[in-house]
Amino acid sequence: MRSRLPPLTIAILALIASMAFCRANATTFYVSTTGNDSNDGLSSQSAFLTLAKAVEVATNGTEAAEILIAPGEYQQTAAIRVESPLTIRGTGAAATNVVLRNTTSGQHVITIAHADAELALVTLTGGNTSSGPACLGIEAGLVRDCCVTGCVYGTTKNVQGGTVIMNGGRLVRSVIKNNRITGTGWNCTYSAGVYATAGVVENCLIAGNSQRAYNDTGGIETSALNMAGTSQAINCTVVGNSSTMNGSGRRPMTTYAASGAKIINCVIFGNTSVVANYTVWAGTAANYVNCATDSETAINGTCITMSNPAFADESAGNYAPTYASPFRDVGSNVDYADAAISETDIKGDGRILNDVIDAGAYEYVPSASMAVDFSYTINRRLLPASVMFTALVENAPGAVVYQWDFDSDGTMDLETSDATITAELAVAKVYDVTLTAVSGTLQATVAKPSVVQAIQKDIYVSLDGTGAYPFATSETAATTIHTALEAAADGCVVHVLPGTYQQSVPFDIDKAVMLVSTTTNATDVILRNTANEKSIVTVSHEGAVLAGVTLTNGKSTKLGAALTLTAGLVRDCTITGNGIGGCRDTDGRSGTVCMSGGRLMRCLIVANDGGTSWDADCGAVNASGGIVDTCLVATNRIGYWGDAYTTALGVKLTGDAKAINCTITHNVCTNPERMDEDQHGAYPMATYAGSNARFINCAIWGNVTKPGDTQYYVWHGTAASYTNCYSELTINETSPAITDPGFADVAEMDYSLTKKSPLINKGTDYVAAGGISESDLGGKPRRIGSKVDIGCYESPNRHLVIVVR
Question: Taking 90 as the threshold, does the pLDDT of residue 463 lie above it?
Fold first, then answer.
């Protein structure tokens, strides 16, 4: 039954009705793809060609007007601003019939800025800005039944923006999908979906938006909803949005509710972030009201968690609830009635069809006859896959018998009167499931494709593989790493056979998956980038491991040219022949390896080219978090002009980053003649340590800012951040100067230690944050003598005992 509307909602609807009556007497203008801006626009036969012309003519002080847009695509080169009581409406049956496309860089599509203005039934696309809205601005008025898609916001410094920016008004029954945030910024606040400081977002689908920008220092970054000020998001469905970049100490998130904002009756599911704790929510927990999410624990006492939302057809983008959906009847009627104005959901069905409103943008429509559905606990599972299914039946006349077919081959696998069963799936494959419910003379059937993907633990990749799922052997192996990672689930090991794997698109290990070479030699498996301005890999899950491969030919001026590490472990890899390409202050942090978390262990970072740097925050290894452990950073090169205080030839540590038992040697500045010594008297340094960063047990030797000169710029930053580090200069009382590190053979790049090296037995056994690697870079035990040695190699055979008989 339908609940009664409260007085406030009735009053709002009466106001809208009165506005509609006034507009019925307003002048109507027409826009058509066959029109001409020299027409008067007063009929479909004399329509304008552009919306900009129609808005210009229709704007007449406080007088209302209506603009009807015929189906078609309309290109525009400048943003439109509506500051009068205009109603702009597409005349097609859906928003996709009328497309308003921006074609100029630096422009959004439209801003609605009048309390009585309305925009309806259009698609907005092509917006591309670096401040303000990328596509749609709402300062007042109403935007309803629209689609906002394919817009790009490129962040810079000290800006606020995003795909949709709201400072008031309402966004109702609209779809915000597949928009992107890119670039590198500093102290920025934005959203790839909606950023609101006031106003209401209601009954909207926010899906597939991506936050790919690097933002340092401050700001709030979201991929879907950034609700600030007094803004509210009500009955929205937030799915499939992603955040894959972050900055020093930053936490990119899916949704955010500030202390004065509210997120009410929303479904938040299947979104991803490089920081696992922020895939669902951030901000003020109490301001999430009656939301259904996939967080591990409920946000608060009004919200629920769910592992399977049982959407109608997620693969087709239909996020409506089914009878099995746990977010049916869990919303707050009171909160909806207090703030929302729409009586229908995003599809046009009644908003409250049962006694309690559903969460999300869609309302479940009850069946009029007997119907069956089922829910299940998990849809991706390592073998052996034990999956619980629960059948749900509407309008059954009596007792029910359930007939299960777990591979939809027409043969019943199980018949039972139990509504809940557990199936043991023994074969690695994708399972289609069919359930038939029988009650008396009635029966109902539901068939669902790709319900469960049972995955074996070991997956193989080979250039000679046949690519036959489930990639269980070297013969049936996947032929690309991207394919194997897509098939893998948490707990899988992806074994990569020898070969050179060329790729033009970076991959992201964003699951608890190990990607490892099948040999012990990193040069046997080469991951080679073939595209301009592309990195190779991002490792972004705390359970992820990348091991035993070579990364080469990565090219990027932003973040890691070869590797971006935000969580997890990268070990026993060689990173060589990559190019930063010349970085600038506007690029933000960059490097051959760029880290904000995780652990880089027993890796060679050698012979990479930094191009030419200007006022840039870069280095061969540039870490704002995480640990660089037992690595050799050598013979990397960087050109330079400008202020070098932020440029490191070898390793730069900020935030709480640490470098432990690393050898940083013979990294070179290639064009010292470009240095401006009068500008702060600066040289690019071999290493840099912020006040909370730490270099421990590191050998820093032979790095030059001027080739052939005796001037060595060993360190910069905070002297106290260096502990037991040995170099040409005395840094502090624990880190003295030495005249020769005793490397075995510098000409052959053998930086292991001779028996006379002053670096032997001079380290401290570091135990915090997981300690140090159990072995050195050459595979020897990490502590052979009384103390650990300095640098990435442990000296062998230091205690020779001769026994005379």
Answer: yes
Query: Quick one: pLDDT band at residue 108, thresholds 50, 70, 90?
Result: very high
Find tokens 């046997």 and name the residue. Answer: 524
Q: Which residues of 764-776 are buried (b: 16+ CB within 10 A; e: fewer)?
A: bebeeeeebbeeb
Peptide bond into 384 cis (omega under 30): yes
Q: How far apart are the first and last CA of the chain?
A: 101
DSSP 653-673: E-TT-EEES-EEE--EES-GG
* DSSP for residue 60: B
Residue 410: Cβ-neighbour burial (10 angstroms; 0-12, 13-18, 19+): exposed
Phi-psi region of 771 (alpha: psi -120 to 50; beta: other; left: phi over 0): left
- What is the C-alpha separation between 593 and 564, in angstroms, rounded? 6
**What is each CA distance from 474 to 322, 454, 478, 629, 699, in whole angstroms?**
41, 19, 9, 32, 42
Distances in Å between the alpha carbon of 169 and those of 73, 84, 202, 351?
A: 26, 14, 11, 21
Cα separation of 409 and 536, whole Å?
A: 42
C-alpha 709/C-alpha 246 separation (Å) is 39
Q: Tell me which residue of 671, 595, 598, 604 sits closest to 634, measured CA to CA.
A: 604
287 three-state secondary structure: helix
pLDDT digits (tens, 9 = 90+) for 17-47: 444 444 446 799 999 999 999 999 999 999 9
Q: In this structure, how many other beta carbons lie within 10 angstroms of the beta carbon of residue 218?
A: 14
CB 762 within 8 A of CB 756: no
Phi-psi category of residue 759: left, alpha or beta, with phi > 0 → left and psi -120 to 50 → alpha: alpha
Question: Which residue has better confidence, 683 or 211?
Answer: 211
Q: Are strands 537-539 and 507-509 parallel, antiparallel or unpaired?
A: parallel
Residue 303 has pLDDT above 90, yes or no: yes
CB neighbour class for 46 (10 Å; exposed up to 12, middle 13-18, buried from 19):
middle
State if pTM tops 0.85: no
The most distant pair of C-alpha atoms in the chain lies apart, rounded to whole Å, by: 117
Q: Return the structure tokens found at 114.
A: 């009048």
Q: Which of 707, 708, 687 is nearest to 631 (CA)?
A: 687
730-781 per-position pLDDT tens digit = 999 999 999 999 999 999 999 999 999 999 999 887 655 556 788 999 988 8
What type of residue is 700? I
Q: Are 331 and 3 in contact (CB under 8 A)?
A: no
Provide the pLDDT confidence category of residue 640 given band limits of 50, 70 and 90: low
Return d(Cα 460, Cα 487) in angstroms, integer: 11
Domain 374-454, CATH class in plain words: mainly beta
Residue 588: name the closest of 134, 105, 129, 250 by CA: 250
> d(Cα 368, Cα 509) in Å, to the nearest integer?
46
β 175-177/147-149 pair status: parallel
Q: How many CB atoms lie within 10 A of CB 51?
A: 23
Q: Which residue has the tokens 């702009």?
A: 88
Q: What is the DSSP string of 525-577?
A: EEEEE-STT---EEE--TT-EEES-EEE--B-SSEEEEEEESSSEEES-EEES
> Which pLDDT band holds residue 186 (cuts at 50, 70, 90)?
low
Give Cα separations from 180 to 99, 127, 177, 429, 758 (angstroms): 19, 10, 9, 34, 53
Distance CA 391, CA 479 (A): 39
Q: Which residue has the tokens 């790049």?
A: 749
Q: Among 246-250, 388-392, 416-420, 599-603, name the one with the lowest average pLDDT.
A: 246-250
d(CA 649, CA 635): 9
d(CA 196, CA 232): 8
**Residue 336, H or E segment:** helix 333-339
Q: Are strands 430-439 and 442-455 parallel, antiparallel or unpaired?
A: antiparallel
